[in-house]
Amino acid sequence: MPAYFIAEIEVEKPDLYAQYVEEASGIVERYGGRYIFRSKAIYPVSGDWTPSRMIMIEFENKAKVFECFSSDEYSRISSLRENSTRSNSIIVEC
């Protein structure tokens, strides 16, 4: 069953975040992740939710999502994201 990692991100330190993106993209792809979108072109329709950036990554299944984001490779760079953004993320199974 496909699983989607969806994140709302507010970038606070663009240079540090750019380094994170460069390194994270390869890690995600090695675990079978496929970026569906990475976008700042967001148009709220209803409610008070106004994210500045959204990301969606498709994985084969939920186990692959956890395998990727709990890997040693990702652990080495996760502080780049933590120190450059404020974010919320979820996993959705379809």
Give the CATH architecture.
2-Layer Sandwich
* Assembly state of the chains shown: single chain
Largest sheet: 4 strands, antiparallel
Write down the Rg: 13 Å
Q: What sequence of helices (H) and strands (E) makes up the elements?
A: EHEEHHE
Shape estimate: globular
Q: What is the averaged pLDDT score? A: 97
What is this structure, in a nutshell?
The protein has 94 residues and is α+β, with helices and mostly antiparallel strands.
Brief descriptors of the model:
single chain, 94 residues, alpha+beta, Alpha-Beta Plaits, 3 helices, 4 strands, 38% helix
Please describe what this structure looks like.
The chain is 38% helix and 32% strand. The chain has 94 residues and is an alpha+beta fold. It has a single domain (3-93), classed as Alpha-Beta Plaits, CATH 3.30.70. The chain has a four-stranded antiparallel beta sheet. The N and C termini lie close together (6 Å). 15% of the residues are buried.
Set out the fold topology.
Layout: E1 3-11, H1 14-30, E2 34-39, E3 54-59, H2 62-69, H3 72-82, E4 85-93
Antiparallel strand pairs: 1-3, 1-4, 2-3
Helix pairs in contact: 1-3
